[in-house]
Design brief:
The complex is a heterodimer of chains A (257) and B (306). Chain A has helices spanning 2-14, 46-82, 84-98, 104-113, 117-144, 147-154, 159-195, 207-214, 223-250, 252-256. Chain A is an all-alpha fold. In chain A, helix 2 (46-82) runs parallel beside helix 9 (223-250). The two termini of chain A are 25 Å apart. Chain B has 306 residues and is mainly α. Helix content of chain B is 77%, strand content 0%. Chain B has 12 helices and no strands. In chain B, helix 5 packs antiparallel against helix 10, helix 6 crosses helix 8 (170-200) and helix 11 (258-267) packs antiparallel against helix 12. The chains are: A mainly alpha (257), B mainly alpha (306).
Chain lengths: 257, 306
């Protein structure tokens, strides 16, 4: 995962080849000197494109998780703490959004809004915040009656202050675990949409778009599929390992299992 | 049990209503004029106006919404712009293929993952356990859109054992079903393992062993039975991933199901068909979750007394 982060940060600068330069004479060529991962269907260097594509993946992961976690935490905390009509209303919205399985709503949104990176980010945030909201709502419901929260209320602390200083911090470890696993989810989400032709548009390199381009060449150039796919799996595996590790730290009962 | 079922049904109704509302709203999220977007930039304003009138997009929003709900209640999902056939009929023709694929994927996932999870739990902390958990984690991290092409390269292209696209025979089903079921198998194996480990440590299992029950029987008849609720929960929750995975798997293997229909209808900007496919998948998901809840009630009678 660190290697991927490093690749995203400085990788494109290390490779002298421009990821969008085409050499049609060498299209679909396998690994060779100067092009260790070969060239794609338009004769572009796959290594350069994988390194540039890492930036898209990290950008999507950071933006989607950052915005989703912030929005979800605030809305979940408000629902859990206020209860009553506010909670009922927010919970119905959460239930409705959760009624769309996985990426389906994101596919639907990008289908109508049009394929672009900005619309992918928007669609992934729309489906992403709900998980955080539900998680934080549950945590807040539990924390609301805790003695330290009651004490803060009795001392005259305002609702925003109670939420910000006492309730939300109690929910943060669980949010951090979910955010780490959410990075993996967001990266797969973007790649899935791009694979279906609904995400990042050519010529910008994205791992999902590269896989989409490789679909037509499974027979004659499998490296078009293998290399970007391997990059996604390694990065997602890294985030999943990190998320599992953090969950074990946050909940030692899990690690014993 | 009937009260429990009725209560769960009542809870699902607002969700179904919300889903229908959101699906209705989709067409209004199209930037600019939806009719122009569907016909393309080259369409004349007259054609766009005609389509607007045909779809009822020229009427006030509340009337459109009422007509949409009215149509839904009668099973009318509109007409496909490309083929001029009723959306419900187009989807119904594709549905059996998706059901066949999803059923095959879920069946093999359960048949392989549950025994694997039990084996990993019984031998927890050994090499067998580490091997099983690593395979499961790799399975979770391997996206469908990569696993599918990889399987096609190995078993279709290199070995030539199986067809890589289309449908019509059992051989055509193998690669799509393995691709679609793999992430589910990985999650199920992990859940089964942790759930069985928790139950194996309980006193009733020790008591069964004390009464002379064999270790295998103590695990399968006692510990595993009580591990079923988390396993069923995960199976219900993962159905969403299976339905979304079907969109990608069907696209990879040219499987003629609803998922592929959705992607095709998006590329043709056939929005009524897009709406129909999304609605069907979401409603199926809600109803399957309802069934999962009913299964809890059957597995653990305490739940419907709460």
């Amino acid at each position: 995962m660190l290697v991927a982060a490093l690749a995203a940060a400085v990788g494109p600068a290390l490779v002298s080849v421009d990821p969008s330069v085409q050499d049609l004479a060498l299209r679909l060529a396998g690994p060779m000197a100067g092009h260790p991962f070969g060239l794609d269907e338009l004769g572009r260097d796959i290594l350069a494109r994988v390194l540039t594509g890492a930036r898209v993946s990290f950008l999507v992961g950071v933006v989607v998780v950052g915005v989703s976690a912030t929005v979800g935490t605030v809305i979940g905390a408000i629902a859990g703490y206020c209860g009553g009509v506010v909670d009922g209303l927010i919970s119905r919205v959460i239930d409705t959004l959760l009624a769309f399985p996985g990426l389906l709503l994101a596919i639907a949104l990008v289908a109508v809004l049009g394929p672009s990176l900005a619309n992918v980010l928007f669609a992934l945030v729309v489906i992403g915040w709900v998980g955080y909201a539900r998680l934080v709502r549950g945590q807040v419901l539990r924390a609301r009656h805790a003695d330290y929260v009651q004490a803060a209320v009795a001392l005259g602390a305002s609702t925003p202050r109670v939420l910000w200083r006492h309730v939300i911090p109690a929910a943060l470890p669980a949010v951090v675990v979910q955010a780490t696993l959410g990075m993996a989810g967001a990266i797969i989400g973007e790649a899935s949409l791009s694979f279906l032709g609904l995400g990042v548009q050519p010529p910008t390199p994205s791992w999902g778009t590269m896989l989409n381009g490789g679909r037509a060449h499974l027979l004659d150039a499998p490296h078009l599929t293998i290399v970007p796919g391997l990059a996604i799996v390694l990065l997602v595996l890294g985030f999943n390992f990190l998320g599992d590790g953090l969950r074990d730290l946050a909940d030692p009962r899990q690690s014993r299992q | 049990m009937a009260t429990f079922l009725a209560r769960r049904l009542l809870v699902s109704l607002p969700v179904l209503f919300g889903v229908a509302t959101l699906v209705f709203a989709l067409i209004h999220l199209v930037p600019g004029d939806p009719a122009q977007a569907m016909l393309g930039d080259s369409a004349s304003p007259q054609d766009a106006a005609e389509l607007r009138a045909r779809l009822g997009l020229d009427r006030p929003l509340y009337l459109q919404y009422a007509a949409f709900l009215n149509g839904l209640a009668r099973g009318d999902l509109g007409t496909s712009l490309r083929t001029d056939e009723p959306v419900a009929a187009v989807i119904a023709a594709r549905l059996p293929a998706t059901v066949e694929l999803a059923a095959a994927a879920m069946s093999w996932a359960v048949a392989v993952a549950v025994p694997l999870g039990i084996i990993a739990a019984v031998w927890a902390g050994t090499g067998i356990d580490y091997a099983a958990t690593t395979v499961a984690l790799v399975g979770i991290s391997m996206p469908t859109f990569w696993l599918g092409p990889l399987l096609a390269i190995v078993f279709g292209v290199t070995l030539g054992w199986l067809p890589v696209s289309g449908s019509g025979s059992a051989a055509h089903l193998v690669l799509p079903a393995i691709t679609l079921g793999a992430p589910l198998a990985a999650v199920l194996a992990r859940t089964t393992r942790s759930s069985v480990i928790e139950e194996i440590g309980e006193l009733y299992v020790l008591a069964a062993r004390g009464r002379g029950v064999s270790p295998g029987r103590a695990v399968l008849r006692h510990a595993f039975r009580n591990s079923l609720i988390p396993i069923v929960t995960v199976l219900g929750l993962q159905l969403g991933a299976v339905l979304t995975g079907a969109v990608i798997t069907e696209t990879i293997f040219a499987w003629p199901g609803v998922g592929r229909l959705l992607v095709q209808s998006i590329s043709f900007r056939d929005y009524p068909l897009v709406q129909g496919c999304i609605l069907l998948i979401a409603v199926t998901y809600v109803l399957m979750n309802l069934l999962t809840d009913v299964a809890y009630g059957l597995l653990d009678p305490r739940l419907h007394h709460d």
